[in-house]
Design brief:
This protein has 410 residues and is mostly helical. Helix content is 73%, strand content 3%. It has one domain: Na+/H+ antiporter like fold.
Length: 410
C-alpha cells in the first residue's frame, strides 16, 4: 500500500469528524457536515493535493462497507414484529413513491421532446431512494423506533425491489439483453429473497441463540434452549457471526441485482431478535463510527459543481419534480399517520443519493442518455440528498414522529 493512501484516509476521516462536530454543535445532523466535506474537497485544490483521483477505488470500497454496516445497524433496530405492524402502510408508501416520481419524470422529458428511452431512464432515476441518508438522521435523532421511521425503513426495502423492477424493464426497453421471461425471473427471485430472509432469518437466529417459542392455547410462550452462538469459542462470536451474515447476504443481494444494503438491512432484522442478549447494537457503534463517514464523504466527492451550469435550469425543474414526487406520492401512502407523519415519511423517502446516480450510469453505459442528462440526474440526486436531513429534522421536531422510541433508544 502506498503511503499516500493512508494520508488520504487520515485526511478524509479527520475532516469528516471535524465537520460532524461542528454540525453537532449547531444542533444539526453530522451527516450534513460529512456530505459538505466531500463536496468541498471535490471542487477545490484539496482533491488534487491528496491525489484522490488515482485512489478513488479504495474509497468506493470504504463507502460501500460504510453504508452496509449502517443499514445492518438500522436493521438491528427493526424487529419483524415491529415492521409487520406498518406493512400495509409501508407498501402503499413504496408503490406510490415509485409511480408518482416515475410518472412526473418521464412526462416532463416527453413534454420537452426527449426520446422515450431518455424519458424512461430519467423517470427510473427519480424512483430511487437512498435510505442510508435518512437512516443516519433517524439514528442521530434516536427515533428509529417511531412508527414513521419503521414505515420509511419498511418502504425502503419494498422501494428497492420495485426500483430494481423498473430499472430492469427500462434497461430491456433500451436494448439491454433482458427478455420478458428474464425480467419476470429476476423479479421473482428478488422478491423471494427479501421475503424469505425477512420471515425466516429471525426464526433461524432465535433458534441458534436458544430463544425459541411455542404456542400454548394460542399464546406464544418463550422457551429457553441451547445458545449455539454463545457456545462458540471465537471471541465475540455472536457479533462475528452477525457480521459474516451481513456481508454474505449483502453479496447475495447484489448478485441478484438488488442493492447490497438490502441484504445488510434484512440481516440486521434477523439479528434484531437477539440484539439485547448479545449486546449487538453496542458492539456495532465503533464499527459505524469508523466506516459510515466514508460513505457520506464519498457521495460529496462525486459532485462536480462546474458540470451543472449548462443544464442548471432543467436540473432545477427535475429536482423540484423529484422532491414533489416523493413527498406527495409517499405522503399520500402514509396519510393514515396524520398530516405531519405523512410529511415526515415523504421527506424521509426523498434522497436519491448514490442510487439515483447508479441508475443514470446504467443509462449512460447503454448510450441511452447523453452526458448532459447524466449531469441533471447527478444534480437532482445530490440536492435531494442534501435537502433531506435538515427537512427531516424540522419535520420530526415539529411533531412528525411518534412512538415509544421518540425520546430515546430502548
Amino acid at each position: 500500500m502506498e503511503p499516500i493512501i493512508l494520508v488520504e484516509v487520515f485526511a478524509l476521516f479527520l475532516l469528516a469528524k471535524l465537520a460532524g462536530e461542528v454540525f453537532e454543535r449547531l444542533r444539526q445532523p453530522p451527516v450534513i457536515g460529512e456530505l459538505l466535506v466531500g463536496v468541498i474537497i471535490a471542487n477545490t485544490f484539496i482533491f488534487d493535493l491528496l491525489h484522490l483521483k488515482e485512489n478513488m477505488e479504495y474509497f468506493e470500497l470504504l463507502a460501500e462497507l460504510g453504508v452496509m454496516v449502517l443499514l445492518f445497524t438500522v436493521g438491528l433496530e427493526t424487529r419483524l414484529s415491529d415492521l409487520s405492524t406498518v406493512g400495509r402502510v409501508a407498501t402503499q408508501v413504496a408503490v406510490l413513491g415509485v409511480v408518482v416520481p416515475f410518472g412526473l419524470g418521464a412526462a416532463c422529458m416527453l413534454f420537452l421532446g426527449e426520446a422515450t428511452e431518455v424519458a424512461l431512464f430519467i423517470g427510473a432515476a427519480m424512483v430511487a431512494t437512498s435510505v442510508g441518508i435518512t437512516a443516519r438522521v433517524l439514528a442521530d435523532l434516536r427515533v428509529t423506533g417511531a412508527i414513521e421511521s419503521r414505515v420509511i425503513l419498511g418502504a425502503a426495502v419494498i422501494d428497492d425491489v420495485l426500483g430494481m423492477m423498473v430499472l430492469t424493464v427500462v434497461s430491456g426497453m433500451a436494448g439491454a439483453e433482458h427478455s420478458l421471461v428474464d425480467t419476470a425471473v429476476v423479479i421473482s427471485i428478488a422478491v423471494a429473497f427479501v421475503l424469505a430472509t425477512m420471515y425466516l432469518g429471525g426464526r433461524i437466529v432465535r433458534r441458534l441463540a436458544g430463544d425459541g417459542h411455542r404456542k400454548v392455547d394460542g399464546v406464544r410462550i418463550p422457551v429457553a434452549g441451547k445458545d449455539r452462538l454463545g457456545a462458540l469459542r471465537q471471541r465475540n462470536a455472536p457479533f462475528v457471526v452477525a457480521l459474516v451474515i451481513c456481508f454474505g447476504l449483502s453479496a447475495v443481494a447484489q448478485y441478484m441485482g438488488l442493492a447490497a444494503i438490502i441484504g445488510a438491512f434484512v440481516a440486521g432484522m434477523a439479528f434484531a431478535e437477539v440484539r439485547e442478549k448479545h449486546a449487538l447494537r453496542e458492539k456495532m457503534d465503533p464499527v459505524n463510527d469508523l466506516l459510515v463517514p466514508f460513505f457520506f464523504v464519498h457521495i460529496g466527492l462525486m459532485v462536480n459543481l462546474g458540470a451543472f451550469w449548462p443544464v442548471l435550469g432543467l436540473a432545477l425543474v427535475i429536482t423540484v419534480l423529484a422532491v414533489v414526487g416523493k413527498v406527495v406520492g409517499c405522503g399520500l401512502g402514509a396519510l393514515s399517520l396524520g398530516r405531519r407523519g405523512a410529511t415526515t415519511v415523504g421527506i424521509g423517502m426523498m434522497p436519491r443519493g448514490e442510487v439515483g446516480i447508479i441508475v443514470a450510469m446504467v443509462g449512460l453505459s447503454l448510450n441511452t442518455i447523453p452526458d448532459e442528462m447524466f449531469s441533471v440526474v447527478v444534480f437532482m440526486s445530490i440536492v435531494t440528498t442534501l435537502l433531506a436531513p435538515p427537512l427531516l429534522v424540522w419535520s420530526i421536531r415539529r411533531g412528525g414522529a411518534t412512538g415509544p422510541a421518540v425520546t430515546g433508544r430502548t
